[in-house]
Amino acid sequence: SAVISQKPSRDICQRGTSLTIQCQVDSQVTMMFWYRQQPGQSLTLIATANQGSEATYESGFVIDKFPISRPNLTFSTLTVSNMSPEDSSIYLCSAGVDRGRAGYTFGSGTRLTVV
Amino acid sequence: AQSVTQPDIHITVSEGASLELRCNYSYGATPYLFWYVQSPGQGLQLLLKYFSGDTLVQGIKGFEAEFKRSQSSFNLRKPSVHWSDAAEYFCAVAPNRDDKIIFGKGTRLHILP
């Protein structure tokens, strides 16, 4: 199955700054997704990263706060902008393997703490 | 809109006992169903998935799940749990095979020695 490398694995950031998280898949995938997991909570979908076009955001998430890039079929970035302590979460990248036939693989996540 | 309900937030079982974690989904057609496990401080691991065919699905680590259309359920089972099974378990659903997946709130499994 596909392997997803996500970096950084963790970071501590000052409020008001931005952090860009990178997600690299070892094979071409059609669908890539970004999730947020707040402390002690489940995973909430932020957006679907579309290759060559603007990301599709879920309700409650906006492009100005979470800009996403997907320049090719193996790579995507998520930026958390103008951070506040409420953005402290784990951010995970996911990709559909074999067009979803083999399920969805997740990166190990980026643990973000905003101080 | 599709949704997933895991009615049990916490479950505690003794080591060696059987386990069943409940999952109900809300979706018009037959969705694609998944169970994931997340150990403390670890990433998500796919235990098993259901797309079609045999409604009893075998997964890794001795887990299985049964899809019951009439009950809109996809419960996870294991005949005998091990201490290493202590983790958070997430049921998830996708409307199509290569589409976004939505997660339930999770069930935390505790194992008594």
What layout of secondary structure does this protein have?
The complex is a heterodimer of chains A (115) and B (113).
Chain A: E1 4-7, E2 10-13, E3 19-25, E4 32-37, E5 43-49, E6 56-57, E7 68-69, E8 75-80, E9 89-96, E10 104-106, E11 110-114
Chain B: E1 3-5, E2 10-14, E3 19-21, E4 24-26, E5 32-38, E6 44-50, E7 56-58, E8 64-68, E9 73-78, E10 87-94, E11 102-103, E12 107-112
Parallel strand pairs in B: 2-12
Antiparallel strand pairs in B: 1-4, 3-9, 5-6, 5-10, 7-8, 8-9, 10-11, 10-12
Assembly type: heterodimer
Basic shape of chain B: globular
Total number of beta strands of chain B: 12
| Helix-strand sequence of chain A | EEEEEEEEEEE
Q: Could you report the average pLDDT of chain B, rounded to the nearest whole number? A: 92
Structural class of chain A: mainly beta
Number of helices of chain B: 0
Q: How does the major sheet of chain A shape up?
A: 7 strands, mixed
Structure, explained:
The complex is a heterodimer of chains A (115) and B (113). Chain A is an all-beta fold and 115 residues long. The model of chain A has no long low-confidence stretch (mean pLDDT 93). Chain B has 113 residues and is mainly β. Chain B is built from no helices and twelve strands. Chain B is globular and about 40 Å long. The termini of chain B are far apart. The model of chain B has no long low-confidence stretch (mean pLDDT 92). Classes of the chains: A mainly beta (115), B mainly beta (113). Chains A and B meet through strand 5, strand 9 and strand 10 of A and strand 5, strand 6 and strand 11 of B.
How would you briefly describe this protein structure?
Chain A has 115 residues and is mainly beta.
Give short descriptive properties of this protein.
heterodimer; A: 115 residues; mainly beta; seven-stranded mixed sheet; four-stranded antiparallel sheet; 11 strands; globular; B: 113 residues; 0% helix
